[in-house]
Amino acid sequence: MATFFMYGKYSSEALKGISEDRTKKATGVIERCGGKVNSMYAMLGEHDLALVVDFPGIEEAMKASILLNKLSGISFSTVPAVTVDKFDQIATEIVKG
Questions:
Q1: How many structural domains is the chain composed of?
Q2: d(CA 42, CA 17)
Q3: Alpha helices in 1-97 (DSSP H)
Q4: pLDDT > 90? residue 97
Q5: 29 near 68, Cβ under 8 Å?
Q6: Which CATH number goes with the domain that contains 32?
Q7: Is the pLDDT of residue 74 over 90?
């Protein structure tokens, strides 16, 4: 499984639909796409939401991003992530390469 950060931005219409029920449905969408929600945060600033999720691959992450937009009206920017330890390992392998 690969880790992805999903940054969400509410539209005016999406704000009207905020509810625990919609959040549960969103979690279900991610799970149906083969994903697992590790954490979800509401934020102030450039992004309104941040989700940390695991997916088998990029295609499943893209599918979930599109389906979440369709469900909620929230637009998501989805980016892959690795831990700093993994990044250090990758960088070390390149330097030694």
A1: 1
A2: 15
A3: 12-16, 20-32, 58-72, 84-96
A4: no
A5: yes
A6: 3.30.70.260
A7: yes
